[in-house]
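batch job 7 of whatever, protein = EamA family transporter
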Amino acid sequence: MGQHAKAGLGYALFAYFCWGLVPIYLQLTRGIDGFELIGWRVLSSVVVAFALVAMTRGWARMRQVLRSRRDTWTLVLAGHVVLINWTAFVIGVLSDRVLETSLGYFLNPLVSVVLAVVVLGERLRPLQWVAVALGAVGVGVMIVGYGEVPWVGLIVAFSFGTYGLIKKRVGGSVDALSGFTIETTAVLPASMVMLGVAVAVHGLTVGASGLTGILGVAGFGVVTAIPLLAFAAATRRIPLTWVAFTQYLAPIMTFLFGAFVMHEPMPLERWIGFAFVWASVAMVSIDALGHRFRRPRPLPPAA
């Protein structure tokens, strides 16, 4: 593995470790309306992004990205997709559905496989079909046994899978900081509408958790920026299949936090459902590794 790939793998592991800590961090903001929190999160992220651009003198790089209409609109789309992901994740954690957000990120590899078929026209290998079927059975068991569709988990899974696919399209031509800055700026209007609606309905709740909540909101820009920048840097350096392996770190951390710290209910049907999903994740991983090692290596050049 070259230094470039090692750096990419390190960035990916760091990004998912940070995302695994976010449910713990969000406990600082309990009592704040979810939509309002997203509005503050985007606003603080924009401030942090432009501060980083100024510190690193990245204005020229960002102007270069903006000259490409294709890259700019792709980043605008990516920003709105990740806004959906943030919203589902924050509302899930603040409404004591941490395990459901964990389910979403466990399902993400399956979503990536499905998107590869639907969007990129790829064909599934036999083991991938088995993995998708097991994942679907797992979700079905939870729906039947638990009496409701895990909407938060499904939205988290599909939104982040789509985000990864979009980021891969511009990974080679857009640096991490410019991409993050353009994405967060693009969703500022939508997030301000969310903030305004939340304040109109519930009033300003940012002080509901006292000074701890205010400091938590203030630090949200840094908490958001760091893993997203690392994720963008990773997707530029390593294949998406490698990123898929590292992503299990965050949902494992989230699952352990939800089940054993927050003590969310884990009836038998939820254990069975998660077991099917974990089996499907194992199938995807085995298939990806096997496919990678089966690919013929290029012949050395003739002397």
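notes: Confidence is low (pLDDT under 50) at residues 299-303.
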